């Protein structure tokens, strides 16, 4: 499988990025998409599509899964009034997205209501053919549908 590579500026300074820390790639208060890796680009595209519906959807790039930036995750979910979509390439069952959802529930302040959807790969074998495997991976449309479901 060929992974899509993001393009962007190359940092050439001597500054070393610290380990850990999520980054809010796009602010928004109607919902937040929590993601990482190659899904960041897909989530940003979905958030842009949702702007035509008048929705301001944030995109939180976890950047690191360990250590997990739980405070930034909690505050992003709070800003979005508990409306969260977790998008990742792994299987929905057993993927790291399940850990994010579990931690969100544990971190929820005073049992604040959460409305969460996960978008991941279905629990099937991934075909070796790139065109078929791409059909199983999350795409902007699936993320848009999940966001619409949590905001209604």
Explain what the structure shows.
The protein has helices spanning 39-51, 70-79, 96-107, 130-136, 140-151, and strands at 23-26, 31-35, 57-61, 83-91, 115-121. Strands 1-3-2-4-5 form a 5-stranded mixed beta sheet, with helices on both faces. It has a single domain (23-151), classed as Rossmann fold (3-Layer(aba) Sandwich). The chain is globular and about 45 Å long. Helix 1 (39-51) packs across helix 5. The chain has 152 residues and is of the alpha/beta class.
What are its keywords?
single chain; 152 residues; alpha/beta; Rossmann fold; five-stranded mixed β-sheet; 5 strands; 36% helix
Question: In percent terms, what proportion of residues is strand?
Answer: 15-25%
Distance between the termini: 36 Å
If classified by CATH, what would the architecture be? Answer: 3-Layer(aba) Sandwich
How many independent structural domains? Answer: 1
Estimate the mean pLDDT confidence: 91
Estimated helix fraction = 25-40%
Gyration radius, to the nearest Å? 15 Å
Count of extended strands: 5
Largest sheet: spatial strand order: 1-3-2-4-5
Query: Which CATH C-level class is it?
Result: Alpha Beta
Largest sheet: 5 strands, mixed
Number of helices: 5
Shape: globular
Order of helices and strands: EEHEHEHEHH
CATH topology: Rossmann fold
Overall SS class:
alpha/beta
Unreliable residue runs: none
List the helices and strands and how they pair.
Layout: E1 23-26, E2 31-35, H1 39-51, E3 57-61, H2 70-79, E4 83-91, H3 96-107, E5 115-121, H4 130-136, H5 140-151
Parallel strand pairs: 2-3, 2-4, 4-5
Antiparallel strand pairs: 1-3
Helix pairs in contact: 1-5
